[in-house]
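Translate structure to sequence.
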């Protein structure tokens, strides 16, 4: 699935957010165990500091793809809240960043595919809800 198809697909949640201060197309993917950044977008974001990893990712239909770099604590701004993410360099096709279960779990994400909405808890307890191009931030009382 490419970028344009993902924007129109009723079953996925996508958006454009500031990643390392630059607008970036992001896919929230509960089917991915890790979070990824495309090889091309590493250059666009001027990411240089990375850790070497030797890891393989299994992609459909069972093919193994090697990952050798991970960019740690990359800032992702959603609304007024900055989240941090470890992104593995990976050939993503039309996507720039995919946020997987490592990131979604860390920020207690709730994905509502029907409404194309995601709700997260920021680092300081602020609840952030994104739907389409509207972002709301506020403290949760419970």
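Result:
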């Amino acid at each position: 699935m490419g970028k344009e198809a993902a924007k129109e697909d009723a079953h996925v949640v996508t958006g454009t957010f500031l990643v390392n201060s630059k607008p970036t197309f992001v896919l929230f993917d509960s089917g991915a165990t890790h979070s990824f950044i495309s090889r091309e977008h590493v250059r666009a974001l001027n990411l240089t500091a990375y850790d070497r990893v030797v890891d393989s990712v299994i992609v459909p239909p069972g093919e193994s793809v090697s990952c050798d770099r991970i960019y740690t604590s990359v800032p992702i701004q959603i609304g007024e809240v900055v989240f941090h993410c470890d992104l593995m360099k990976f050939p993503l096709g039309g996507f720039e960043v995919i946020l997987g279960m490592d990131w979604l779990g860390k920020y207690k994400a709730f994905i509502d595919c029907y409404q194309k909405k995601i709700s997260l808890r920021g680092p300081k307890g602020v609840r952030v809800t994104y739907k389409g191009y509207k972002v709301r931030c506020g403290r949760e009382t419970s």
